Structures are given as C-alpha cells and as structure tokens.
C-alpha cells in the first residue's frame, strides 16, 4: 500500500501561512543587503534578528 496523505487542520494551515510570510519577508530583506564584502555570517545574523522580532524561532 502507498503512503497515506495526512490532511492539515485549518489551524495548522494558518500557522504554515504565517511562517511562509515571515520567510518571504526575510528573503526580501536579505536580498537588499547582499553585496560584495557582506559575509554569510552577517546575513545569517540579520535573518535571525528579523525572524525573532516577528515572533518566530529561526
């Protein structure tokens, strides 16, 4: 038998949407900061701060 499909509840879908919005906003913010000389460590630090300020756990 194949794998069973597990359906998400409305609450789970809402949480996933909120998380995806934070990820999209984080990537948009980072896109503006990427430049020669900017390290991946700096980008990671900015992303973490951005996520935490929005109530998420990076």
SSE topology:
Blueprint: H1 10-33, H2 40-53
Helix pairs in contact: 1-2
The number of helical runs is 2
User: Would you count the extended β strands for me?
Assistant: 0
Enumerate the spans where pLDDT stays under 50 for 5 or more consecutive residues: none
* Average predicted local confidence, pLDDT: 95
Span between termini: 37 Å
Q: What is the overall shape?
A: elongated
Structural class: mainly alpha
The profile of the biggest β sheet is: none
Helicity range: 55-70%
**Rounded Rg:** 16 Å
Number of domains: 1
**Hey, roughly how much beta strand do the residues contain?**
under 5%
Order of helices and strands: HH
Notes on the protein architecture:
The protein has 58 residues and is mainly alpha-helical. The protein has one domain. The protein is built from two helices and no strands. Helix 1 crosses helix 2. It is elongated and about 50 Å long. The model has no long low-confidence stretch (mean pLDDT 95).
């Amino acid at each position: 038998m194949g794998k069973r499909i597990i359906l998400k509840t409305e609450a789970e879908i809402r949480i996933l949407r909120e998380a995806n919005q934070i990820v999209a906003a984080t990537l948009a913010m980072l896109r503006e900061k990427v430049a020669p000389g900017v390290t991946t460590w700096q980008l990671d630090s900015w992303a973490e701060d951005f996520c935490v300020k929005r109530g998420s756990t990076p």
